[in-house]
Amino acid sequence: MLSADHLRPTGDAPLLIAPGHLLQQGGMKQGLAVAVQHGRFTQVGPVDEVRAAHPGLPVHEAPNHLLMPGLIDTHTHLTQAFGKSLAFGEPSEIFRRIWVPMEGVLDEHAAYLSAKLAALESLRGGFTTVVDAGTRSEEGLAGVARAAREAGIRCVLGLICNDAGNTEGEAGARRILDRAAGFLAAHEHDPLVHPSLAISIPEAATDRMLHDVAALAREAGARFQTHVNEHLAAVERSLVARGLRPLELLHAVGALNDSALLAHATLLTPRELGLLRDSGAAVAYNPVASAWKGNAVLDAGLLQMLGVPFGLGTDGTRADALRLMDAAEMAQRLTQGIAKGDSSCGGGWTWLDHAAHEGARAAGLGAVTGRIAAGHAADFLLLDVDVPEFVPSWDLGWELVRFANRDQIDAVFVQGALRLWQGWPVDWDARALMREVAAIARRDVARAPIQRVHATSDAHRAQAEAERMRASSSF
Asked: Measured between alpha carbons, how far is 229 from 327 in angstroms, rounded to an integer?
């Protein structure tokens, strides 16, 4: 029986695994094995060939497991883990009333704790790569990078470069751009933390800063991240202030190019879709965020048809990659498929692709991760498929999208190292982290100027019951 001890390589010797099923870019395969060494897949091929290439080494057989790429969260917020359900049931633009106030009080240690907790949740949910859109904590960026490395998750880490509040003119703008260039250079060769530049939303920056930050990111081969056309209020503010919708504004100032990763993009006109298609920019599709607090759902099938690169993102809602694929397919079916009689909505393979290799492409890491292939980083999952939900199995791809559960994930590997075994880290104390988070989060949430519109669920229940009692007594 497979165990964590089996999956730890000895010295410099490669780790050899022969799963019952292996998910490659073209679909499910059987009879294959992988060799992992120095953080990468060094061989993927028939079991006998892999065995013959490594005489004397054990091949760890996992006949009841699927070996699949670790999945990619193309849009999240690692320093929002302290808030979580505080945003539930709230109207849109919660960043103004909850996230900006909460992140603003985090010191470097608190940001580190939040990011490490979020990274743990992501790994437990099957994500081996997360794209963080940037923290609003002035001191927290170094803590986020340290947390990612310690947790062992691959992270595209955004540095926010907003300048709407700049009161120092050219000197202030130069300071922001110099910091951005230094950040890109400092992480250029980091094996796990990949640098990125971000503008929170286009209205948070001047035209010059939008252009220059996107150009810096493009020159460095990094991603330029921003939230675009997510909420009606933001679209209307942009029209009033700049005469253009947010995506149109990016195009007008030269910031809409193939370095861009646009979060949400749910409210797009036909013209904006054309601009997006022609730009080479990628999109993070966030179906759970649309359901929980959005104004609309992106038509991911249309993006696919237009050839726009896109991945799936959580927006920090819940760090569960398998449920995210289910939500993506369900959102497409409810908002597009039912009305058009499209019962397939892209088929199960669409959501697997965009959670894995297409997600890696959208994150700017298509040459690094997202595939089980020689030369790519060994970021992968071992999923137990010997469970009632998968018996009998007729279509493993569809079953992964609609049936799979994170408790089936036995092993999570990032950069060739076993990070989690059956949901828990193998080399650090997650429960100690959870205890410290519980104390620090209460302190920071209590002192943050958070404004919630709705009460917690128990208080809301009590209010509803009181109203019902008052109404019934009036008859």
From this structure: 21
Tally of domains in the chain: 2
The enclosing domain of 244 has a CATH number of 3.20.20.140
Edge-to-edge strand list for the sheet holding 154-160: 71-76, 127-132, 154-160, 193-199, 223-228, 260-264, 282-285, 310-312
Domain contains 441: no
Would the pLDDT of 475 be above 70? no
* Cβ-based neighbours of 60, under 8 Å, separated by 6 or more: 2, 6, 7, 15, 16, 17, 18
- Domain match, 295 and 241 both: yes
Report the alpha-carbon distance of residue 265 to residue 276 in Å, rounded: 10
Domain boundary among 362, 382, 398: 362
pTM, rounded to two decimals: 0.95
Strand partners, 258: none
Please report, as a single letter, which amino acid is at residue 403: F
What are 155-181's pLDDT values in tens digits? Answer: 999 999 999 989 999 999 999 999 999
Judge whether 196 and 263 are in contact, CB under 8 Å. no
Distance (Å, whole) CA 238 – CA 444: 32
Alpha helices in 203-356, H assignment, sequence order: 207-220, 232-242, 246-252, 270-279, 287-293, 300-306, 321-332, 338-340, 347-355
Chain centroid, CA 147 distance in Å: 16
**CA–centroid distance for 407 within its chain:** 19
- CA-closest candidate to residue 131, choices 112, 118, 143, 142: 118
User: Residue 422's closest CA among 413, 411, 414?
Assistant: 411
Q: Are 202 and 306 part of one and the same domain?
A: yes
Confidence at 9, pLDDT banded by 50, 70, 90: confident
